[in-house]
Design brief:
Layout lengths: L7 E2 L1 H8 L3 H9 L5 E3 L7 E4 H14 L2 H7 L13 E4 L2 E4 L2 E2 H4 L5 H9 L23 H13 L8 H17 L8 H8 L4 H13 L7 H11 L4 H12 L7 H10 L19 H7 L6 H14 L5 H11 L6 H24 L25
Antiparallel strand pairs: 1-3, 2-3, 4-5, 5-6
Length: about 375
């Protein structure tokens, strides 16, 4: 059973504190901004996390001051873009209304890509591959994999229908890791075969790809949407997401996690808290289900849980999966990137359909710290 915050409040009190109607309160809950729980005294009554209410009160006060609002809106701020792709709410997340944890039990990445993008030809991944050869050798980890994937995505490409283009991009991402053309083989099986891992690892790889496919407006998804909003090609939008993912505070966190697991206590603890999941990242438990963790990794997890209550994020889960099945070092990042490509494609296509340029304004501050008066908008 998940932990319940110590401080809870009623719907009337929460609404009054925020100065909103009950309908608006419920809307905040559905958007994942306020956690709700069944009352321990009356299961029919819902109570609301006071911490979340107070956070929103503080945000509302801040957003009454335009200059402060502009400076903080992109730092874990209130939602800034509308999307129909992924929703995170009450510690769960959904791809176009489908519970992702349930989806990950059986779906392939290809099926997930069709769901995320929508209106995609069902034959998209059964047509022959058009990856040009010869391909370079396998690559793993943020630096080598990103360099190889960018090279493949930057090659001249034929003009294709959307379904064929989506399939080609996903296959190129897998080929950047395996060094081989996946053809029409499901990508999780292709990777398992290329990496020469036990049969049971193929299903864990499949789950990893699905669970990593999207996560709402992450830094890399935002980079993709900004790029796509300029009218750039899908491949270039994916390159933008891939480069953003490689940073140590995003997908590159896997490298920090591996260093920690190799020598616990010698480097800062990474990847054990996620601001969207105060009670723990649900993706990690789904990812590691039935995975035979290394004894040392299982011991580390338990020690951290006992000492601080920290629960592992998806980065930790990916590295532990990599270590459990003897995947190539750096495969954790590779799985993250290949899986997330499905979401990037969905975001790029959705953004291009909105036909609007994402162009925020900056608040200039002089060398002496004095804010300058803004001029009119420029392109």
């Amino acid at each position: 059973m998940s932990a319940v915050p110590l401080d809870l409040t009623s719907a009337d009190e929460a609404s009054a504190r925020l100065g909103i109607s009950r309908a608006s309160l419920y809307a905040y809950v559905s958007r994942g901004l306020i956690r709700s729980f069944s009352s321990p005294h009356d299961p029919r009554q819902r109570l609301y996390a006071l911490e979340d209410v107070e956070t929103l009160v503080e945000r509302k006060a801040r957003f009454r001051r335009p200059a402060v609002a502009a400076a903080t809106a992109l730092d874990w701020g209130l939602p800034v873009l509308e999307t129909s792709i992924t929703q995170i709410r009450d510690g769960r997340f959904f791809y176009r209304g489908e519970d992702v944890l349930a989806l990950a039990r059986t779906a392939s990445l290809e099926e997930t890509a069709r769901l995320l993008i929508g209106a995609l030809d069902e034959q998209a991944f059964t047509s022959p591959s058009r990856i040009p050869g010869p391909l370079p050798g396998p690559a793993f980890g943020p630096h080598a994999f990103v360099a190889q994937a960018v090279r493949l995505l930057s090659e001249p490409a034929p003009k294709e229908a959307r379904a064929a283009e989506v399939a080609a991009i996903l296959r190129l991402m897998a080929a950047a890791s395996s060094g081989a053309d996946p053809g029409t083989e499901p990508l999780h099986r292709h990777l398992a075969s290329a990496w020469k891992v036990p049969p049971q690892a193929a299903d864990a790889i499949r789950r990893a790809l699905v669970l990593c496919a999207d996560h709402e407006l992450s830094s890399s998804a935002f980079a993709v949407r900004v790029t796509a909003s300029t009218g750039a090609a899908l491949r270039n939008a994916v390159i933008a997401g891939l480069v953003a993912l490689s940073g140590p505070y995003h997908g590159g966190m896997t490298e920090r996690v591996r260093a920690f697991l190799d020598a616990p206590g010698t480097v800062p603890l990474p990847g054990f808290r996620h601001r969207l999941y105060p009670e723990g990242d649900p993706r990690t438990a789904a990812l590691l289900e039935n995975v035979p963790l290394l004894a040392s990794d299982a011991t580390t997890l338990q020690a951290i849980a006992n000492a601080s209550g920290g629960r592992p994020g998806i980065d930790v889960g990916l590295v532990m999966l990599e270590r459990a099945y003897g995947l190539p070092a750096g495969a954790a990042f590779t799985l993250f990137a290949i899986g997330r490509t499905a979401g990037w494609l969905a975001h790029a296509i959705e953004q291009r359909g909105q036909a609007t340029l994402i162009r925020p304004r900056a608040r200039y501050v002089a060398a002496d710290g004095t804010p300058a008066r803004q001029s009119h908008d420029d392109p």
